[in-house]
Specification:
2 copies of one chain form a homodimer. Chain A is of the alpha/beta class and about 525 residues long. Chain A contains 18 helices and 15 strands. In chain A, the strands form 4 sheets. A 6-stranded mixed sheet of chain A has the order 1-2-15-12-10-11, with helices on both faces. The first copy, chain A, has a 5-stranded parallel sheet with strand order 6-5-7-8-9, with helices on both faces. Chain A has a two-stranded antiparallel ribbon with strand order 3-4.
Chain lengths: ~525, ~525
């Protein structure tokens, strides 16, 4: 029987509290024993990736209690409940089924007699068919000319994840001769966003993908009409240039204004929708459906490892537990995501949503206030760029920021150049290796301004190359990490009530039904 | 006589510590008195901007002590020392002269008989002359064809600021018919960064700007050769396609491999170089030198307001003091930058460097360890995008994050569309107004999951439109805010010793002179 208990009621959590500041990564990683630790504190992930936590503030004692915590909190049992179709999103009375988008992990999940896995698979197949026809020029514009570019209109989960995934694979696809259509994205209700994208778009040869699960997203509907206005002014018919991704119950569904429509349902949260039709349409059109299938395969492989009860066999769970230890025991309020891969430039922005919108909560899954801190602030930029920016504070600031490094042995484009005896890719990796040790071990200097105290923990996810499959595994790793942390904090990680008040007040402002400070701020902008 | 004293030795700071949690923004901003507070807590900035701090946790009592603190810490006197040429960057024995890039604030500043203002102005004039010639097609490629695009190669301050400023004005320039050359940027040593930019570049008609003050930046030199390789393979002569921005003592100076060279010197820190030749070359080529001059004029106007001793006449100082109160008294470790303008999409990344690299320090300007927290973590994304991402945590998470909103009455592109009775621009502004009040005042609900406690402080910078002049004022506002906070924390905000250890260890890795953990991490990547 599954118990949904607050973190601070668990026996293992009480034990964990006595283990604050137990491990010095500086001591553990310095000297000759450091090499052995790097070898030992390493766990295989899906798709050939590896999770290394040698530079984290853990040791066998901490890890044993973290295993106890995972067991006591029944996190893998909760995951099983989730993928078997329980209503985990209690606040909205919804199942949570994004794992089914990429494979079957447990029982068939039915909703109103619909087999959910079959439904999701049928959508991906329909997208594949559509994308093939576009690529084979069976679907063309009204003049019979091919579509050469795709622009996604969506915001939040309909933007950040798909955009990050597109950027992650654009150069890989170029190298592998499967960049079939370049993609761009319009998200912000600021009309300058759409105008800038349109200024760089060949409208006659562009397919637009309108993405809104509810079909009522203010920004997306405004941007749809903004774009349609340009399409019409160019003498084109918007219905020949736009497809929709939405739910079957939305006003956008089955609408002749769209060339085609693809569907998700209420059990796919926006921030978990990159592997659904929301990411599937743009990625299949850009790179081909086969690439999207490899991406799903990588994600599914990571989902399977997330079923393991033993934390050293389950890197998502291990990562989640170490993050919880850092947040609730060590008291670190932020985490930085630092991919040493320019292709992952927007992964931190996607994870910022995935993590902060899922676990930035102060009530548990029963709606009761909790008495411990939950989700941290997530931020980050790719390395080496960040080294020339905010790393100063990470190395020598007054606060400690846990770090998540990501790196690959090989880059995506075939070209590189040797300067001073090394390629750029080797320089990139050398910087990454150096940073881990610099943060952990520091360096004594009699001049305090040049002294590095070290003791700044990090973990490293690494692999051979960022490909569709490793990208899928990477994405699912973080999705599952966030899910496990939500279970440990006893949160509902799948609603987002915190966004509602702003929407309500915005409506009041636009209806001119305001008073007090809100009226005054509205008047500033002459709304 | 100026005293460089630690924050915790100041009398006013001791008084401030007794004022923790004194002001409830929820109470102050709710009800009918809220409107008056919005009117009262407002200060004019340069270039027609306004700083509103009605939703900050201050009242006349707190503000009075903050004024005492500013006076006791002699921050405007220190600013005067700085712009009159004192060696404020003590660790590197350097003056700090970025204010001179945009105007004369005090005495003439001489260095080795060179008038620094004249030197900086001569560089801007040389850039203007060069840009005019490129625009008039007097400077062309070897085939006599015009240059139509510009690509900046640089990292850190040679990338983030110029890139953020370019993006801030691209749509404005398009609307005002002065987008003369589109710009792109290569920064990361990851060869996929350069490869992706080059794949989208018409090499024959592109000017590259190589930017490195020292002329020794590893990433930038590797990227220079990476790009030159492509240029040569295209049958072109790199010397006809590349200009340099560097210091006169660098290996890049006076080098016939460049079509032209423009100079800065050691008194311009990378993160403060957007108004120097580092930003000037790319912005003058992209938009015309007149636009860059307006940008400088806005920055200079903001610098002049920063001379005011009275904090309500000096918005940069007021902003700095409130930030310090939030960091050191209220105990908030992070700050979010939230521009409601897609054009400012990379301003948060630039301010992340400007702030965290300047004030992420644990030693004072004499190199002694301080016993209080210094610079916060800075992060952010444009609104309304962020609303659909991490705002859930900002509204309902367990930690409080102070917020810096930025917004404009009018957008940059001429087009907009009315949907449901309002334009997209009005929707954008309505969302901004609504968020300020939602964060501050919250909303009671018997369901704790739908309850918003409020009490989440924010400030607002607003104006008519984001233009070259308002952008300059905005940039200088933040530069001066960071400077004042550095004075208050008694830091040297102008060095960055925290980046050195990583560089050293990277060299060891590339030279295969490693052992222990560093060797192990190097082996992972087969370096």
């Amino acid at each position: 029987m599954i118990q949904w208990q607050n973190l601070d009621t668990l026996e293992a959590y009480k034990k964990l509290q006595s283990l604050k500041n137990l491990v010095s990564v500086k001591e553990e990683l310095s000297g000759s024993q450091g090499a052995q630790r790097v070898k030992n504190y390493s766990v295989p992930m899906a798709a050939g990736l590896t999770y290394n936590y040698a530079a984290k503030e853990v040791n066998p004692q901490v890890l044993a209690i973290l295993q106890e915590l995972a067991d006591e909190a029944q996190v893998t049992e909760k995951f099983q409940e989730l993928y078997n179709g329980a209503v985990i999103n209690t606040g909205e009375n919804r199942k949570v089924l994004h794992h089914l988008l990429r494979g079957q992990l447990g029982n068939d999940v039915l909703f109103e007699e619909k087999n959910e896995r079959d439904f999701y698979k049928a959508q991906i197949d329909a997208i594949a068919d559509f994308a093939h026809k576009v690529h084979k020029r069976e679907i063309c514009n009204a003049a019979g000319e091919p579509f050469t570019a795709v622009v996604q209109i969506g915001i939040g989960g309909s933007d950040l994840g798909p955009r990050a995934m597109y950027l992650a694979l654009e150069q890989w696809a170029r190298t592998n001769n499967c960049l079939k259509m370049k993609a761009a994205f319009i998200s912000n209700v600021d009309p300058d966003d759409g105008a800038t994208v349109i200024a760089n778009t060949d409208l006659a040869h562009t397919l637009f993908i309108l993405v809104s699960k509810s079909g009522t997203t203010q920004e997306t509907l405004a941007n749809e009409l903004f774009v349609k206005d340009y399409i019409k002014k160019a003498g084109l018919n918007p219905a020949c240039h736009m497809v929709a991704v939405t739910s079957e119950t939305s006003p956008l569904a089955n609408n002749p204004e769209y060339l085609a429509s693809f569907y998700i349902d209420d059990f796919i949260g926006g921030r978990y929708s990159s592997t659904s039709a929301v990411g599937g349409a743009v990625l299949s059109l850009a790179f081909g459906p086969e690439v999207f299938k490899d991406f799903l395969a990588g994600a599914h492989e990571a989902d399977i490892t997330a079923k393991e009860k033993t934390i050293t066999h389950n890197p998502s769970l291990l990562d989640a537990l170490i993050g919880l230890y850092e947040r609730n025991i060590q008291g670190y309020p932020t985490t930085a995501i630092l991919p040493y891969s320019q292709a992952l430039s927007r992964l931190p922005a996607h994870l910022q949503q995935a993590d902060m919108e899922s676990n930035g909560k102060h009530v548990n899954c029963r709606g009761e206030k909790v008495d411990y801190v939950t989700g941290p602030i997530i931020f980050g930029e790719p390395g080496t760029n960040g080294q020339h920016s905010f790393y100063q504070l990470l190395h020598q600031g007054t606060d400690i920021v846990p770090l998540q490094f990501i790196g690959f042995k090989n880059n995506q484009n075939g070209n590189d150049i040797v300067v001073d005896g090394s390629t750029s890719q080797k320089k990139l990796c050398a910087n990454l290796a150096a940073q881990i040790v610099a943060f952990a071990c520091g360096k004594r200097d009699d001049n305090p301004n040049k002294n590095f105290t070290g003791g700044r923990p990090s973990s490293l996810i690494y692999g051979e190359q960022l490909t569709p499959k490793t990208l899928g595994a990477l994405l699912a790793h973080f999705e599952n990490k966030i899910m496990f942390q939500g279970f440990l904090w006893n949160l509902n990680s799948f609603d987002q009530e915190g966004v509602q008040l702003g929407k309500l007040l915005t409506k009041q402002v636009l209806a001119h039904k305001t008073e007090g400070a809100l009226k005054e701020f509205s008047d500033i902008f002459e709304i």
